[in-house]
Amino acid sequence: MSELRKDPIVDHWVIIAENRAERPNELLQPEPAGVEPEACPFCAGNEEQTPGEVAALRPAASERDAPGWRVRVVPNRYPALEHSADQPAASNGFYSSVPGVGVHEVIIECPEHLVRTTDLSEEQLAEVLLTYRDRLLVAKLDRRLRSGMIFKNVGAAAGASIEHTHSQLIATPLVPTSLAEELSSASEFYRAQGRCIFCELVERERADARRVVLDASAFVAFCPYAARFPYETWILPGAHSSHYETLSRYDCHKLASILLGAMTKIDAAADRPAYNLVVHSAPFDAEAHDLYHWHIEIIPRLTSTAGFEWGSGLYINPLAPERAAERLRDC
Amino acid sequence: MSELRKDPIVDHWVIIAENRAERPNELLQPEPAGVEPEACPFCAGNEEQTPGEVAALRPAASERDAPGWRVRVVPNRYPALEHSADQPAASNGFYSSVPGVGVHEVIIECPEHLVRTTDLSEEQLAEVLLTYRDRLLVAKLDRRLRSGMIFKNVGAAAGASIEHTHSQLIATPLVPTSLAEELSSASEFYRAQGRCIFCELVERERADARRVVLDASAFVAFCPYAARFPYETWILPGAHSSHYETLSRYDCHKLASILLGAMTKIDAAADRPAYNLVVHSAPFDAEAHDLYHWHIEIIPRLTSTAGFEWGSGLYINPLAPERAAERLRDC
Question: Quick check: B257 pLDDT over 90?
Fold first, then answer.
């Protein structure tokens, strides 16, 4: 017997249908990303294969676009959005469009050819997380932009086209749909209850404990109640914080520790799956505030999304989050 | 330069970024579904490999669960939802769940081992479309169910686990998220303008013509203004109609004709891609009404959805719908 669960934050439902885990090929195998390491444009020494860097963590003595860097940031070669606008916003009252101004950057996480978050040291990952913060701070200087999203695709099944471990930043001139929905629900909860819905969530998950994967006091990692995917895991700061970019260097180390811990467990439980990681943070134009709480969502891509999911917005998850969390804790 | 477009029906934005079409491997190749025809559970003669049929188009003289059928409907072996409920609805004021009651059926579209919609004759497809109607009419007799969605997955990249051409029906005890969003926008438009937003859409697309793929008067096929995917195509009845299940046998033939025409063009333009097809129809509990308009969405799976799409709800489409429609018209 399956169960339909409503996400407590947004009006999305999920079908938890564990019988479907028995389906042949229900869980996808990770696919090779199909990139030859010797030709990798993200490896140190191949800097000329990418657009010129916009930032890097490197010794002061080292040269731009040359080896020596630890984390390197370059514009995406095929940007979804760009700095300059060559068209006006348009609307005929029915159809509306706005020019695709924005930022689309690639954050290359290490100079050596490593392919997964778990291949990085905690020190390396902390520098990557610090770079997320710094690039968000730069992007929000452009007053045309309203929101920035950091994300990471690992494995071909998760949409990665290059296997060398990297993240991306896309900053947009509007607040993306999913964030707008979270903000709307969080705002409603705040009006009714006088507190942040994510703070409430953290408190309830810690008290219940069945879905908690790791609890490191400054951060907690758990499988959400209405998980859409097997082993879906969220990481939230325990203390209220609306904007990722307010993270301190010290917090980045703590976040690296729990993220590495959670990813190591997911790699072990699901055999190094393809996955997406997304950082949700409050829009740029909002001051630090009491109703939204930044967080990281990790989505292993073990199930494929098919017509039903696309058509209905309902997800079918063959692994209940309580069981997923138990397996992850045991890893 | 890319462009952000808002869907005129729901509050979803799409990034039309044609420069990304140049990205290596941007467009996925279709994958083999990996099923051996001789062992196909959906072929005539292998009826014992599926659960017993709940309906079939077959000569009166032929036997249930034996060859002779033209279209056959069986329960899904791994149902996401089931008829019987063994648990109550639950809510603690923060987390809510409802039992997974519902219908999950497989509509086997032909007795021979064909794998794509375009392998069917128009006559066969008309009988499939008629079966959609009949199964929706049966599902809505269960007063616990609020909505039924017909969908079809073709190709492994679209989530198909069996290649023999088939569709599915999932009927749910709630109105799925995407349909609820469409209804909410349609309702708002109806209050403001006094007409169906989809009727307005059909009129505007016909007048503009740039995105129209096929126009057969009773039905029109076009690429939507805020297409999320390359070659995404919608088919709508030209005359207002809220519920698919009110289709006449005569209409099913006309619908088969335009659907086969559109799929033939998509197969030619995109080299027989994996795709999802979804029928959106008004909830069961609504009488035929003036604000919603049933329609079919065809989603070729040529791009993969990655972290940005999952995190933001924003889609990046490397092929503008005007260009997609032009190519489809030329096929």
Answer: yes
Shortest CA gap A216–chain B (Å): 24
More reliable by pLDDT, A9 or B199:
B199
For chain A, the straight-line distance linking the first and the last C-alpha, in angstroms and rounded, comes to 28
A316 and A289 Cβ atoms separated by less than 8 Å: no
Contact flag B178-A94 (C-beta cutoff 8 Å): no
Round to whole Å and give the CA distance between A79 and A157. 21
Q: In terms of Cα–Cα distance, which of B270, B271, B294, B274 is closest to B284?
A: B294
A313 vs B181: CB contact, 8 Å cut-off? yes
Is the per-residue pLDDT at A36 higher than 90? no
Question: Nearest 5 degrees, angle CA B140-CA B146-CA B149?
Answer: 75
A–B: how many Cβ contacts below 8 A?
Answer: 251
Chain B residues closer than 8 Å to A181 by CB? 313
Query: Interhelix angle for B122-139 vs B249-269, to 10°?
Result: 120
What single DSSP character describes residue A283?
-
Question: Residue A80: which of B15, B95, B161 has the nearest Cβ?
Answer: B15
Instruction: Give the DSSP letter of residue B82.
Output: B
User: What's residue B86's pLDDT?
Assistant: 65
Local structure of B156: helix, strand or coil: helix
Residues in chain B with CB shorter than 8 Å from the CB of A24 are 161
Q: Report how far residue A14's alpha carbon sits from residue A315's, in angstroms, rounded to the nearest whole number.
A: 5
Tell me the per-residue pLDDT of B259-274, one tens digit each, with 9 for 90 and over: 999 999 999 999 999 9
Q: How far apart are CA A25 and CA A129, in angstroms?
A: 35
Residue A229 token pair: 């995917």
Write down the pTM of the prediction: 0.91
Query: Distance, in angstroms, between B112 CA and closest chain A CA?
Result: 23
In angstroms, the separation between the Cα of residue A59 and the nearest Cα of chain B is 31
